[in-house]
């Protein structure tokens, strides 16, 4: 079996155990030579704007799906046994605790894989943030990273210029009508 046969599955964990489960699974893969069966482990995160008690706002990284870890793997009873017996794991998401693979559409929507996008902006262009915690903010592109599909933008936030990293799909070039 090849990596192309692998599908994404979801495991449920105890609250706050996501990172520990990911680390344990990575050690499990290494110790049992499971690189041919488990290909990727992810805990999707997103940046959100949070207001602190003192009135200051701060961009923080939060888990998109608390208590869930995503595995790209080739399913087998042996893998099921090893994963479900990992400390912090309560089981797979699916009927009677049996794994149900995610569809391609679900995988893209949850952000587990990046879909290559074409961009119409370059360094120095003015852009508007289309979604996320900084939605409707405008700024100037300072850096592009094609490999990670990320763009760095200088945004004026609370009277100061702040450099933020966003996904290509989160920004749109501002075109000036002449």
Description:
It is a single chain. With 178 residues, this protein is α+β, with helices and mostly antiparallel strands. 16% of the residues lie in helices and 38% in strands. It has helices at residues 18-31, 77-84, 104-109; strands spanning 7-13, 38-42, 45-51, 57-63, 68-73, 89-92, 126-129, 138-145, 150-157, 160-167, 171-173. A five-stranded antiparallel beta sheet has the order 10-9-8-7-11, with no helix packed on it. A four-stranded antiparallel beta sheet has the order 2-5-1-6, with helices on one face. A hairpin with a 2-residue loop joins strand 9 and strand 10.
Cα distance, first to last residue?
Answer: 58 Å
Radius of gyration: 20 Å
- Report the uncertain regions: none
List the helices and strands in order: EHEEEEHEHEEEEE
> How big a fraction of the residues is strand?
35-45%
Q: What does the overall shape look like?
A: elongated
In the sheet with the most strands, the strands line up as: 10-9-8-7-11
Give the SSE layout.
Layout: E1 7-13, H1 18-31, E2 38-42, E3 45-51, E4 57-63, E5 68-73, H2 77-84, E6 89-92, H3 104-109, E7 126-129, E8 138-145, E9 150-157, E10 160-167, E11 171-173
Antiparallel strand pairs: 1-5, 1-6, 2-5, 3-4, 7-8, 7-11, 8-9, 9-10
Feature tags:
178 residues, alpha+beta, 5-stranded antiparallel sheet, 4-stranded antiparallel sheet, 3 helices, 11 strands
What is this entry, summarized?
The chain contains three helices and eleven strands.
């Amino acid at each position: 079996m090849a990596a192309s046969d692998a599908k994404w599955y979801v495991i449920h964990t105890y609250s706050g155990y996501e990172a520990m489960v990911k680390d344990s699974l990575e050690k499990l893969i290494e110790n049992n030579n499971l690189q041919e069966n488990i290909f990727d482990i992810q805990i999707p995160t997103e940046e959100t704007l949070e207001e602190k008690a003192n009135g200051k706002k701060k961009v923080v990284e939060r888990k998109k799906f608390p208590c869930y870890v995503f595995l790209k793997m080739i399913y087998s009873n042996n893998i099921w046994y090893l994963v479900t017996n990992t400390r912090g794991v309560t089981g797979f998401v699916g009927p009677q605790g049996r794994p149900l693979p995610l569809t391609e559409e679900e995988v893209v929507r949850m952000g587990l894989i990046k879909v290559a996008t074409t961009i119409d902006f370059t360094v120095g262009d003015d852009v508007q943030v289309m979604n996320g915690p900084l939605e409707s903010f405008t700024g100037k592109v300072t850096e592009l990273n094609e490999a990670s599909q990320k763009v760095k933008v200088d945004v004026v936030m609370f009277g100061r210029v702040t450099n933020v990293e966003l996904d290509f799909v989160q920004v749109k070039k501002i075109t000036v009508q002449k």
